[in-house]
Amino acid sequence: MYGRNPPGVLDLIPIPRIGRASPKADAMTEILQEIHDQVRTAIQESNTQYKLRIDNHQRKVLFDKGDFVWAVLTRDRFPVGEYNKLKDKKIGPCEIQMT
Questions:
Q1: Each residue of 8-41: pLDDT tens digit?
Q2: How do residues 77-95 score in pLDDT, each as one tens digit?
Q3: Residue 88 DSSP class
Q4: pLDDT tens readout for residues 36-82
Q5: Which residue in 33, 54, 59, 78 could disulfide with 83, CB within 3.0 to 4.6 Å?
Q6: What DSSP string describes 19-52?
């Protein structure tokens, strides 16, 4: 009905809902909700398995007080107007200080 004008005023009145939907429609919505829940849990399980596999390959780096490291500076660490592509991207060695 998009782009068409209703022929009469009565066509603008919403159709009243009498009673409930059919039992088949209720059963269908329950089936669809169960399918959605199954898909949601399958995606969550897949994501957790993927995270476990990826986390096994991550190297955990622990620093102690007094260790020297190189600090990598990204563009968002510089003040506005101070960044250019010829500036140093790494600074260091910087000593780790625990406070």
A1: 666 667 777 776 678 888 889 899 999 999 999 9
A2: 777 877 777 877 777 788 8
A3: -
A4: 999 999 999 999 999 999 999 888 888 889 899 888 888 787 778 77
A5: 78
A6: S---HHHHHHHHHHHHHHHHHHHHHHHHHHHHHH
Say what the pTM is.
0.45
Q: What is the DSSP letter of 53?
A: H
What residues contact residue 64 under an 8 Å CB cut-off, 6+ apart? 96
Give the residue carrying structure tokens 């986390």: 55
SS3 for 91?
Answer: strand
**For 58, which DSSP code?**
P
